[in-house]
Queue: 4 jobs
Job 1
Amino acid sequence: MTNDSSFNLMDKIISLCKRRGFIFPGSEIYGGLANSWDFGPLGVELKNNIKKLWWKNIVFQREEIVGLDSSILMNSKVWEASGHLQNFYDPLVECKQCHNRFRLDSLPVSPADPEKKQDRLSCPLCGGELTSEKKFNLMFKTFLGATEESANAVFLRPETAQGIFINFKNILTAMRGKLPLGIAQIGKVFRNEITPGNFIFRTREFEQMELEYFVNPQEADSWFNYWQTERLTWYDSLGLKRDHLREREHNLEELAHYAKKCVDIEYQFPFGWSELEGIANRGDFDLKNHSQFSGQDLSYFDEKSGEKYFPYVIEPSVGVERAFLAILLDAYAEEHDENGDLRVVLKLNSKLAPIKVAVFPLVRNNEKIVKKSREVFNLIKSSFTCDYDVTGSIGRRYRRQDEIGTPFCLTIDYQTLEDDSLTIRERDSMNQVRVKIPEIIGWLSQMFNS
């Protein structure tokens, strides 16, 4: 997929995102800030829809899973216990000539001996010699209070998981929990990436949707397989094409310091197959280490077996922005209409669409049509996310809504004034039907729920 047309697709997505209010470059009026992005009005809606659907699937539809919103700033001992202070590094090299920095594992290797790191090719930008490998910690460091002393050092969290682990006992007690027990969290995380890029795919500030699923160690393998299947099924439900998804298991050298096993669900992005979501068996690493470092007993007493043990943890973890990008790429289409004109359309699942319904008066210089259009808009806006548009011809308004993925457009015309019906135009097929205004909420609800 990594060809000119694929990268052209990425350019089109970036252009659409800015033009239609999905994503803007961060701090743009000041020249920008590298790899920072602001989600605009439609981007916020799409992002929220992704998070709501994840939360509904993970938390609301399961009896044994609850939610948490933990603090971004935590005691630094948390990161010592989790191993992030010792192990959360990327291999860094710098060009001696142009002084650009790169992740060593992202550089091409010598065809003569691809296994040896020292045989990496020269600087990909200028051809200059690269320095030897250095370890670069990815955590952002800051200080609490007025003085920058080591005792006051804290870190912006690089994952939401640790907030869950340190609250395991609190939630177990408060919610009268028994295994299996899941704790879900959505929140901002921060990683000082050496080479962020590919639009919103790899950024230094992003949102994670993470589930920590605590299980009996003897049942860890079966629960891992369960969540692997469940997560693929969720992407199916969003409408992602299955041939754009694959599973890849990490080899031993790739595994994180805490992981016993990890499988990535990868998506075929324009720049190649890359991780969309990771599913890891974290074993008992986290609870055992936090027990040791804190002096608090985080083990679990199993009333059925009479055993006391540290639960194993199965962790499905996905970045909201990566899901956002994959959804846009999968939904983007260019088609010719019945007149041979090119239209751009986002064929988003209606559950994801930022705007569900658009309302148009056929003309804006007829007071009765405009008044009736406003009545329709006010009638449905409490039930669906709506847009009211009077600018340009009907054709132009249809095209704008196609480009942002709006499933249905409602047009109030002269016939509406006679029989109280309106035209509903469906996005993908462009088919049109007439429906009576009193029936419109029921009709739309049926369409969205079908």
Job 2
Amino acid sequence: MHEVKVSVIIPVFNTEKYLRKCLDSVIHQTLKDIEIVCVNDCSSDGSKDILLQYRKYDNRIIICDNPENSGLSFSRNKGISVAKGKYLFFLDSDDWLKLTALDELFSIAEDNETDVLIFDFINVFENKEIEDSYIEERTELIGDYSYAMSGKELFTRLRLTGGELAPSCFAFYRRDYLSEKQISFFDGILHEDMIFYPTVLCKAERAMRVENKYYYYFRRRKSIMTAGRLSERIRGLLTVYSRLCEDIIPLMDTEDEKKAIRQYMDNILGAATMLYRKLLRDGQKPDIHSIDSGYAAVTEMFIRYNSQEYCPVIEEKDLEMIRASSNIIVYGAGRVAREVAAALSSAGINEFVVAVSKPSDADGLFMGNKTICIDNLTSIKDDSLVLIAASKNYEAEMKRKLDELGFRKYLAMSIL
């Protein structure tokens, strides 16, 4: 039997509509020395039958069944436990791959002896409505990424130059590295990738980022967020925050490394804050009971902060102007911007873009919204209302910037 070069791990739960396309993209890979580990998480549709049909014709397919519905992290960890490949690749069952993806990634990883190899992806939209509502968050990479570096250096450079977050599916992992460092997915929470991503990078001796696009990322309509689901998201984000405090902050040595992880964690806390305040405004009591050691102190701090009245009131005349605008841009990403975003949410306005002045400050995520450099939004300047969300010290400078770029409609949001 040939050595298994790559184990492709595919968690499957009720994706019969998309599963065949996913599997076809894997079984027809130009790299043949692979195994395909499909973890069926108690699907109630025809997904299991599709897996059985494909296994009849391709003995590289391994089917694992969870005894009960256990979630994405549990399924990925189960796949890791049975995988035999030198490298691991995580593929969601509604996505698919370029046919040369594994062949090319294996060659790059071998040539550069990487523990983690991050790559780019292609967005595919379920319909025009979803495509029109999507805002591209990726920015052009700044600097030279053509060589392997330490994982901490790669994480820091991507964070401080506006690089994107990398979900676990957009990377290629050496299996022995994950085993040696005892890295797995945190089970029982949402947002598990937000722990896995910095952990797997910051512990790696050799990591690399290539601009090649290998992964087709299918963006489809998500389920409605109930109060219980929102509470679950908050619990997940706070658990991520507490684990990063315990496991990742101690690894950071230089000032840039510390700044990068602080930015990453601030965005996590900001996203949790927005969800928490939304529930409070809707008259719901968030259920964020402790589920992790070290989590209690974070939860206590979080609740104490959010028990105070921080949200400003936007005047009705301004609200009318905001609601009438085709595009809303919150210009700023600090404390004032947080309060403006919270005030908008309080008024039932949840669709807006968060903009910053410098490409290096485009961190990727701010209170659940993607941050974009204001220079990259000039294509919508004629149909946008910009809310300047910064202290008085920066207001005049930001107005000059908007005038230079041709933005004509803006409001200064004074919340000091």
Job 3
Amino acid sequence: MPFGIFVHLLAVLSLLAMPAAADHCVVVRYQHIDDDTPGVSSVTPQQFQQHLDYLLENDFSVLELEAVVTALRTGSGVPARCVALSIDGAFESAYEEAFPRTRRYGFPLTVFISSEAVDAGLDGQMTWQQMREMQAAGVSFQSLGHSHHHLVRRDTDESLDDWQQRVAFDIQLAQSRIEDELGTRPTLFAYPYGEYNEALQQLVESMGLTGFGTQAGALWPQADFTALPRFPLASFGAQPRPFAKKVNARPLPIAGAFPTDPVVPLDDWQPTLTLVFQPLAIDHPRLRCRLNGAPGMIYQWLEQPENAVVVSPRGRLRTGRNRVDCTLPLTDDGGLGWYSHLWIRRDDDGGWYREAYDPLRVSDPVADPVPAAPPVAAPAPVQVPDPTSAPMPAPPGQEFPAGSPVEPTTH
């Protein structure tokens, strides 16, 4: 039995042996743990150490991410104060900073990697041998795809079928490379840049993977397992007070959030978000939502469906990724329910924006496309979901000042 599978089985069995006292778990997401990388995607080693100290001193149960997903999917529950640690990218700081610190504390760690960047030996990337060393000590490696391209984007003359084949091949290639090098096949997939749409979610699900975004919030059984939330930690959101709020977060008790596709039409600069709360006593006036960290949203509570609110921004979306974060106090000690909604806005002409910083990109997705893919079973055409049965998307996170980047998810 490959060592990675053995470690995962041990994690699941340990979790099952714990008293299940909660139905939710918070996943935190790091990128760089470094003093010299861009602040929008980084925490310092000192901050990372402070985070681990806080979790240890406040009796959090730090669990393996794959085991948490299994527990929530099967309804077996998780311990109170459940947290899982994840990193996006096979950066050297994961090996040099995160690995020795989490091993010292006995905390499980999950690293999502782009296999092309590792194969190409990009500057600042770990080697497969370093990852095998980490895996032998219990670190789990999952997939961020092969090329780290913007998977939601279709080329100008690309059909839906061709897009599905190209993206499926990119994901499968990463699956194969990770399995070849580390002996385990990923079951979790993190969307590059945190970007997804309904067609990509359907494709990821058809490949048997659990999808993760970078919109913030807590995991729970009612969440959408094709786009689970994680609290991005960097910049202002990695400071002690915001960190404590995030790891103590709960899911916002909603039955649905609409629309479900994050990509907005070109003629819509102020999309509305409808939240349908579960039928329980909710202190509605205390709901607070922000667009890209800025307050000033408009709330319209509906008579039908009951316990539903339409949240509208006063300002306009910016080109690129936008996020609406909603919080509601749920406990006497100030514990917050969180929900975060992703909006993706293209350029005025329908084109796609460029990333200012991406150390994981090896090739250009247009000039250097992914090789022709072998036939892959494509999912059925995307259907508009029934609002009464659609799964809940995900929850919020950082309080960024107006004008700052909406999220520390540059790659």
Job 4
Amino acid sequence: MSDNISVTSGTLTVSDTSKLSLQNDVTVSTNTPMSVGTLEMNDNNFNISATQGADLTIRKAFSLDNGSTLQMNGADLTMTEYATISGILEPSGGTLLFSKGGSVSGTVNSKNSTLSLQTANLVFTGLLQTNGSTTLSGASWLNLSNGTLEVEGSLTLDDVTTSNSTVLKLTEHTTISRNSPFTVGSVDLSGKTLTLGSTDTDLTIENSAPTEGGSAGTFQMQGADLTWTGVTAFSAAKVYSAGGTLTLASGSSLSSTGLIDLSNGSTLVLNGAFGQSGGELTAADATLETAGDFSKTGGTLTSNNATFKLNGNVTASSNTPLSFKALTLNNNVLSFGAQTDNLTLTEELTLNDPNGRIEQGSTALQLNGGVSIDSGGVLRLTDVLNTGSSKVKLNGGLLAIDNDTTLASSILHLAASTLEIAQTKTLTYEGASIEIGASALSIIGGGNFYQH
């Protein structure tokens, strides 16, 4: 076929043993269904201009050449055998039915259309374009493990196969929903917003060394989890979580205009060292978990209503005072960098294991909820401790004074405990009188104790 044709009545049928071979770009105008055995594109374009119901069926294996475009203009296309799509397939409102699967190294544009799969996988190494009016039928046969998914609007990805080689690319603000976790290799936000549409839509971006690049947009996690397995530097991207878990690899950082905003019981899991030199990190009713050193040299950290939880020994350094609602040592050691002036906690700090302790250095401790040093617990002071109107509870543990210290907080003795004052050092106690009670309070170390 080398010229346009028009079919106005009946059915145009080419037998299964025959073939329709394009010698030039061809447009078929029809208001009746068409059926062909073999369609040879020969690097030409085939344009179907049809009324509703004037659909095309290809009965033999079909290859859409790299240089060809098949434009359906709203008509349905049924491929009854295996299809190889190297060119561009444009349904533009109709249904694409792959009866026995196929492979796509080119482009399938399913915007405003239905992509229907039956009996066998449709495997992408090329591009699948979707929008909010795309319908996926038989999605368990859709394999995007090595393909690119381009989305805009909204999309449900239940049962679709993805992997760490899948590229997710946004062309507009998009909401993706899924009934189970999924993995991609990279996300290109292109300045747009990706919203995870349900608490089950957990996304892992699995890349050994991603760069922010096209991720300089916004992630709205809502209550879903978002994980980066590779080191990620947030200099422009914004991430909001309202109940999910954001997990970052060791070495990740926040700078410039980057933003991480955690609320509604969210958790930030840092699987190693994390540095903030700029940007905003806000944790309201949230938990910051870290297995490595936490360093802040710039930007804004708002964490006074957050829990700081250690998953390893951690050195915390900050150019501004650190403030948390609570501290969970988890049997690990918290120490401070030289520039860290102050740590404030709102809730009571409980110490009950010698492995879970604070190495104070020159950082003042403002424990507004007080501290309970239980059996096995150790609090070793080398700088200021202030608990405000709350108490220092000696409940079977050890309070050690390693430098000259003035303690304005009151000590409450609840169980047999030890007060150790290093030799030549002095504890000046300005709190209420200590009621020893029936349990022994041992004062050791050879230092001096003065009560005012």
